Records
---
Amino acid sequence: MNKGIVKDCIILFVITLVAGLLLGAVYEVTKNPIAAQEAKTKAEAQKGVFADASEFSQIDVDQAIAGEVESNGVTVDEVYEAVDASGAHLGYVVQATSPNSYGGDVTLMVGVTADGTSNGYSLLTINDTAGLGMNAQKDEFKDQYAGKQVESFEVTKTGASADNQIDAISGATITSNAVTEAVNACLAYANALEGGN
């Protein structure tokens, strides 16, 4: 009976070893294309929120500022300085993640000009309900955040009547709030950087 158990253990070990080697091989084959696609997605998102910029230079996240602007689980993940062709500072692109959307994390990038104007956002990740929360990808919702010079945005269900108000996506207030809190963290972070310059 012990020989049967040993034989089964050896077979299981061999299967696990082969599966692990195959997974490792797949990872090695796919890691560079995945990294290239992620870099391309970020570059497109940066250009989407700062069309006037010719270059984006990543800078370290200032943890002191991040600590002041992060709340409700929202994190500031990355920061890029946007410059024009002559190298003149135009503003910042800030990436933030909110864990509070209906489908989990929402990660986005916001362009903020040197004078504190929001250029809007580009979504990097969202996993919400089709036809509801996924409408955060649509221009009719996204455009509400563009071209506004406000300290922060707030979501309303009764129709936006001020520059800082965002009309919630019908049936997706949770997603609307998650996007807005991530945008607000980006705005606050960029404005704090500009105030420190």
---
Amino acid sequence: MTDLLERLQGLLAEYLTMENIAFAVFSLLWLTSMIRCFGHRRLANLALRQRREKRGEAVPISVVVLAENQCNLLRKRLHKFLDQTHPDFEVIVVDMNSQDETQAYLKSLDYMPHLHYRTLPDGAKDISPEQLALTLGIRTATKEWVLLTNIACEPESRMWLYNISSRCTADKSIVLGYTRYRNPHGWAGMRYCFFSAWQQMLNLTHVRRRYIYRAEATNLCYRKEFFLQHKGFARNTTLLTGATDIMVNTYSDRGNTAVCLLPETTMLKDCPRSRQSWATERLFFMETRRHLRKKTTYRLRYALSVLLTWLYTLSLVATLTLSLLLTEQPYPLAIAAAVMWAVHSIWRSNCINRTFRTLKEPRLYFSLPLMLHLIAKWDFTAWTRHKLTNKKLFRKRFV
């Protein structure tokens, strides 16, 4: 018995070394990350399955388009909303008290049968302008379903409205479409595209299992009765942005929500004009997420995804460093770790880029590992800025 214990102690002393422990941790994280990569393919699989499915009939639908001092964009893009292949639809443009030629331009289009426009009432003090505009547009709608967007976006296809309304079935109250940035340029454009696609990829796959954590308000369908039943945006009337995020987060669940990823239903959104405008958008979302009720499951999943990326990389570095410094024959362990890293990198790139290709996002290869590691930095920067910002900035100033 004593000999057996001494032999076990000798084996432990021989194999339970720092470099072997580091390699074992790296192997465990490698396996976990390889399995998680299947989740990155889930959205692409859903999109491909929806393309093969038989599409339902298009339901009557109203499109609410917000505009504020964007007359040039109205002239350029409004016809893309009006020129849709759909048997029964209307477009309601809500002018948020523009100071340019927006109202005059809309009045000149009175002859168009599908177009209606509304203007915010003067002196509204009890609700933020965005929420008031959305509420006015939804209440004006005469159709059963209402699709929310703004004039800074444009549909990718004439079949956009037909295909997304075909997903508005009797058992659903919310339908989410996909939104992507158009014509990204340079490093900044690629960063905006990647971060938007990454967050939507996580959120839309989460929707199919539980609820909506957040929603792109540029391609979002509500059932009008659902909006009125829950009293619209009554929970946070003074919050300047994020009203749609809060509403769908509060009242969505797996049963009443659908995701539409048909290729013609994508909405194209203008890239942020500057780094500052993107940072401001992230800052306002940090305030919005404070008011979200359903958050624990999604945030835990999101945090684990970001943390796993960093832990995997650190374990790889530790394995290579310790094997090269502490072992007499470092190459077998280092080569095994390097081969495993190469296999994982190829598999992860394949899974993520397959989804990006399906959603017509720019594909990333050599820059993908860097982007994945920068997510933590971008989130921390936005969180820090939010903590240092006066919270009055995010609410309507009463006069």
